[in-house]
Prior knowledge:
Elements: E1 4-6, H1 10-20, H2 26-44, E2 50-56, E3 61-67, E4 71-77, H3 81-90, E5 95-96, E6 98-103, E7 110-116, E8 125-129, E9 132-133, H4 137-148, E10 153-161, H5 163-172, E11 177-183, E12 186-187, E13 193-194, H6 200-205
Parallel strand pairs: 1-11, 4-5, 4-6, 4-8, 8-10, 9-10, 10-11
Antiparallel strand pairs: 2-3, 6-7, 12-13
Bound molecules: 1-O-pyrophosphono-5-O-phosphono-alpha-D-ribofuranose (PRP) and uracil (URA).
1-O-pyrophosphono-5-O-phosphono-alpha-D-ribofuranose binds next to strand 6, strand 9, helix 4 and helix 6.
Amino acid sequence: MNKVVILNHPLIDHKMAKIRDKRTGTKEFRESVSEVGGLITYEITRDFKTKPKTIETPICEMIVHELEKQVVIVPILRAGLGMVDGIHNIIPTAKIGHIGLYRDEETLQPQVYYSKFPKDIKDSVVLVVDPMLATAGSACKAIDILKEHGATDIRYVGLVGCPEGIDRLQKEHPNVSIYLAALDTHLDENGYIVPGLGDCGDRLFGTK
Ligand code: PRP
Ligand code: URA
């Protein structure tokens, strides 16, 4: 069964307070989303495997440890883009794929319009990035697509989730671990997370 990790950390809570506040403007919202992306990355990577390598320090030879697998960050467009820089700052060797999809406002079903991945995705650890885990329709569809392309080691990374989204993602993709900055109470009748932070894509890109 997949692991569900809710990051209980004072720094993340502090930044989430800014992100959730409706008075926070686009610039500060975007910066805070990216920063939480970076902070979450320490927890996501905690159990990454490393491989030994011999190097020479200025003093002597020693065995050091490097990440064993290539990391691929795959944001779900648009809102996932907001977390990419923060994660990439921590793992600068990561490659970046993209999945373009949006949630139909009436049916809440994911509509796919784009995907592009690096060639070695099969052997990589893939971080699917999307700030909002609401119905989980978007996350499940993105992971379906990644699996069709051969990815096997996949982790979901988001800001805010709800029990409905976690249940569905666990059922449809039991081998995908879930990392969230916060777990909220429920979805409203329009499929928005409560208390949530509103429409993340609109707040990141000022399109409201
Ligand atoms: C938002 C969000 C997720 C999706 C979550 O994207 O970024 O992708 O909704 O909802 P779900 O769990 O019910 O699928 P949106 O469709 O608003 O597109 P955008 O990122 O282009 O704004
Ligand atoms: N997408 C968002 O941007 N916010 C929500 O609360 C749910 C889906």
